[in-house]
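Comment thread on ticket #2218

A.B. wrote:
> Attaching the input chain for the structure job we discussed in standup.
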Amino acid sequence: MTQALTYERLLLKLSGEALMGEQGFGIDTAVLQYMADEVAQVHALGAQVAIVIGGGNFLRGKTAAATGVDRAQADYMGMLATVMNALALQDALETTGLITRVQTGIPMQSVAEPFIRRRAIRHLEKGRVVILAAGTGNPFFTTDTAAALRAVELHCDVLIKATKVDGVYDADPVKNPQARRFAEISYMRALTMGLAIMDGAALSLCRENGLPIVVCNMFTSGNIARVARGEPTGTLVRDLPDGAEYRWAEADR
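C.D. wrote:
> Ran it. Output below, let me know if you need it in another format.
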């Protein structure tokens, strides 16, 4: 390790929607390279990095299902969209000098390795960035659930959900200027409030395995590295001491 880190092995959850920037569809290469640079920054600290990426910039299973496509079929289509994003991110990461591996929940040996837990862990130990695509390989599960599952399987120290907002609020900050941001919130409080952090299955899996979640703004440069160093960043979701349910961010108390 080049520096003492609070979280040495992290799982970064990236949304496909973030990759399209302001285009409305597909991949914005400037955003893609920005994300690659942010990953390279935290990797340079000595962190082991796994990434789960969504496919919403191309197709979302639920959206396709709403148009009449069979839900299972639609979900498989969405999983394939995540593979395109994973390959694009792999290319961008390698331009920064990182060594990467793409593993998929649906076998497609011509472009990626199948997901094999022990192999993925070995890649991480060797300093390779592992990009995990095609969700869990099963329909009816979100990429949030895939991120939680892979983080637990790979013995990650934290799950970082990188979004377009700077944390978790008690209301939509875009619609309600009085919304307050949580510095920390318990898994159960987040579940009972129905906060849009991750879906219920993902939150429950993290809670059962004591895996902390940090929700932060990917577009604030250096945030992923700050999380790895343990600096207060975004919102931390975990079991709080003394049975507390939440703690407001300093500016929102």
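A.B. wrote:
> Thanks. Noting for the ticket: The mean pLDDT is 93.
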